[in-house]
Amino acid sequence: MKAMVFHGKEQKSWQDVPDPGIQDPADAVIRVEAVTICGTDLHILKGDVPEVEPGTVLGHEAVGEVVETGSEVRGVRPGDRVLVSCITACGRCRYCRENRFGQCLGGGGWILGHLIDGTQAEYVRVPFADLSVHALPGAVRSEDAVLLADIFPTAYEVGVLSGRVRPGDTVVVVGAGPIGLATIATARLFTPGRIIATDLVASRLDAARAVGADVTVDAGEAPEQLVEDLTDGLGADVVVEAVGVPQSFEACTRMVRPGGHVANVGVHGRSAELHLESLWSRDLTITTGLVDTCSTPLLLDMMAAGRLPAAPALVTHRFPHSRMEEAYDVFSAAADTGALKVVLGPPTHDEVAPAG
């Protein structure tokens, strides 16, 4: 089969690799129908995630069809269309019993495209299939469902729930990429008083308004002053970091009010300064986290009911699998291409141009 293989810092290729097979009775093999590229994949290519070994197939988000299952799999069977979660869960360890699947001690957690071969391929082996794939209703399109593999549960769990967004809050989302946009959309479920989005790219600020931001501001035009003005000098109740660079994290700690929450969602490859000399007395809560995907069934129900933004709001580019390298080029140059989510897979019926 073909797959996108990591070969070291800034090196990757779409190449032939062996087909995956069942290695454990709890495995399933999925024929990948729709797959996407995550900002974390770019961090891997930058060398920010050193655990990824050269030769690993990248990717941790996909929708596809079950083609084979191990003898212990009971929840899905060949022919089922499923969502492949970015997190796998053994279901038995202490953390899994607490619904903290991202910290699984039994061989799960974030392993796809990280510690084992991932989803940017024609087929993928998924361990612990009963807890790590979700059967999809026919009403949910594949390119909508793939948004639930990572960005929506990550934004909802690590940003909104960890940030404790409440009705009436002022929420600031720093970074209006896919995770930031999903944070805006899911924060709205808690009826905050206002959501402020900041980013350096004008098209992303447009997208932020489209999914529910009340105020947008260019990151180069004094967003901290704007937050101060809009809150009468108090600061935001919740600030979500959705970029993953030191400057944005440090800005978050300056925009939050005393007693407020900073929820870090971004993947950081470099250290950021924690200015305790000015923060120690402000009674802040700062949270970090890897998504657990325990909210995926809930979010899937909400997507099916039309309560979450679907692909038209977030997917800007579509490619066949064979153009994976081009898709990476487009996604990695988002400031120039306007890319948000990039989805690869066969065209749906409404995307096929009529003859002539």
UniProtKB/TrEMBL annotation:
Pfam families: ADH_N (PF08240), ADH_zinc_N (PF00107). Keywords: Metal-binding, Oxidoreductase, Zinc. Its cofactor is Zn(2+). It comes from the Bacteria. SMART domains: PKS_ER. Residues 8-344 form the Enoyl reductase (ER) domain. One of its GO terms (molecular function) is oxidoreductase activity. Belongs to the zinc-containing alcohol dehydrogenase family. This is Alcohol dehydrogenase GroES domain protein.
